[in-house]
Amino acid sequence: MVLPFPDHLLTTPCTIITEKTGLSEDGYVETGSSWSGKVVFRLKTKRVLDANKQVITLSGEMLLKGVILPLGVVSSGRVTVYPNTERSREFKAHSVSENQNPDGSIHSTYLELM
């Protein structure tokens, strides 16, 4: 059973550039892929503790239809909301999670932004 996604909520243009886990032969973080489309975006301030017990302030959250890349491949990424406009803002992805349908397929991807 596949649940319907509320496409009418996808209103914010966005560009996401993901980074793969691991390093290239030259010692740089490998750029994964880029994705452009519309998302559900909310500015929301939230504080969480990281693994070192330091406070991190999250600035927003984002919901995408489907999947960008498999979770094992994505380590981090940069997110630009309203690209190429005067309202353009850039965020860093703090965490990425995937929501599943009852049959196990991917319904949506959820990102927390710093």
Describe the structure.
Strands 1-2-3-6-5-4 form a six-stranded antiparallel β-barrel. The protein contains no helices and six strands. β1 and β2 form a beta hairpin. The model has no long low-confidence stretch (mean pLDDT 84). Helix content is 0%, strand content 63%. The chain has a single domain (7-113), classed as Thrombin, subunit H. The chain starts with 11 loop residues before the first strand and ends with a strand. With 114 residues, it is mainly beta.
Keywords:
about 65% strand, Thrombin, subunit H, mainly beta, about 110 residues, 6-stranded antiparallel beta barrel
Per DSSP, the total helix count is 0
- The largest sheet has its strands arranged as 1-2-3-6-5-4
CATH topology: Thrombin, subunit H
The CATH architecture category equals Beta Barrel
* Cα gyration radius (Å): 15 Å
Order of helices and strands: EEEEEE
Unreliable runs:
none
Strand content: over 45%
Please, how many domains? 1
Structural class: mainly beta
Largest sheet: 6 strands, antiparallel, barrel
Termini Cα gap: 34 Å
State the shape: globular
Multimer state: single chain
User: Which range best describes the helical content: under 10%, 10-25%, 25-40%, 40-55%, 55-70% or over 70%?
Assistant: under 10%
The average pLDDT score comes to 84
**What is the CATH class?**
Mainly Beta
User: What is the number of strand segments?
Assistant: 6
